[in-house]
Write a structure and sequence with these properties.
This protein is an alpha+beta fold. About 25% of the residues lie in helices and about 30% in strands. The protein is built from six helices and 18 strands. It has an eight-stranded mixed β-sheet with strand order 1-2-3-8-7-6-5-4, with helices on one face. Strand 5 and strand 6 form a beta hairpin. It is globular, with a radius of gyration of 19 Å.
């Protein structure tokens, strides 16, 4: 039985429901996903490694290796826990397989982040490693490296009544006169310390999967299901104990461009043509969308102050 859903503006057809992603009517079938199997030809296909992660898993192997197969007609993502994805060059067909004790829920954590981020790149859409929140009829993006608090800040906005568009992957859908953020899926994944900072106890939210410590925040009532124009980008900086924190500082265009280049998806898998397209697009983004650095306070209990600071900055610069 086929299931249909929409993620990042793609009409997706799958053979199993993706955890956390509701079924929906789609206008077009852009991507077909087959869970639980890989192409029969995979083990005989010639391939070459095009990316090896520079950090290792607990077993001491590279956390991720990516291979180009059949002269670049396909790509294979091979994670250290033996979860595998195969993606065709057009970004229209994808296979996924995992080994026990891992589950479909575990596989979905890869799929909804780095794998679909790469699919979007193959389809010509540059994405930021970011979260996006709806402020009125516009979107803001929260960018930063892993652990900077993007998801936690988006969850704090949701608790204040704002709708979330995307977590982890934020599209820069180029419409020439503006950039649209496409909706992702209605949940946020949070580590236990973030749950404690938001709700007082680490056990307030259910686990995303029995095999992982991350928790699941349901956004069914606080999800923005339609794309919105991008109004501002906030780079989450290093946390400080300064009494003035949190505070916002403007970035000039070169600083803003560097901040975006450092936070795009699948940057290490880009070929020369992809990289040129990305640079040209990001140059136009920083020319039309303000990029600002926000410095959070080191005390996680002050996460709401961070939201207020961003909201005040948006109000001051409208």
């Amino acid at each position: 039985m086929d299931y249909r859903c929409s993620i990042y503006g793609l009409g997706i057809v799958t053979n199993r429901i993706i955890p956390g992603v509701p079924a929906s009517t789609i206008a077009s079938e852009d991507l077909r996903i087959s869970f639980g199997s890989l192409p029969a030809w995979l083990h005989t296909a010639p391939g070459e490694a095009c990316y090896v992660a520079d950090y290792n898993s607990k077993c001491g192997e590279p956390a991720l290796r990516v291979f180009r197969l059949l002269d670049g007609k396909y790509y294979q993502f091979y994670y250290a826990d033996q979860t595998q994805f195969v993606i065709d060059r057009s970004g229209s067909e994808l296979w996924a397989e995992w080994s026990a004790p891992l589950t479909l829920e575990d596989t979905a954590t890869y799929l909804l982040g780095p794998v679909l981020g790469f699919v979007m790149l193959l389809r010509g859409v540059v994405c930021l490693h970011a979260s996006a929140v709806a402020i009125g009829d516009k979107a803001i993006a929260l960018v930063g490296p892993a652990g900077s608090g993007k998801s936690t800040t988006a969850a704090a906005f949701a608790e204040r009544g704002y709708s979330v568009l995307a977590e982890d992957v934020v599209t820069l859908d180029d419409r020439r006169d503006r950039f649209l953020v496409r909706p992702g899926y209605p949940c946020i994944r949070l580590w236990p310390p973030a749950v404690k900072a938001l709700y007082g106890v680490e056990t307030h939210l259910p686990k995303l999967t029995p095999n992982w410590d991350k928790c699941y925040l349901d956004l069914s009532e606080r999800f923005q299901g339609e794309p919105l124009p991008l109004a501002a980008i906030y780079q989450l900086g290093e946390r400080h104990h300064d009494s003035d924190a949190p505070y916002v500082a403007a970035l000039d265009r070169s600083e803003g461009l560097m901040a975006l280049v450092a936070n795009t998806y699948a940057t290490k898998l880009m070929d020369r043509q992809m990289r040129a397209r990305e640079f040209e697009l990001l140059t136009r983004v920083v020319g039309s969308v303000p990029v600002r650095r926000v410095t959070p306070h080191a005390d996680p209990a002050r996460i709401n102050d961070l939201c207020v600071t961003i909201l005040n900055d948006i109000k001051d610069h409208r």
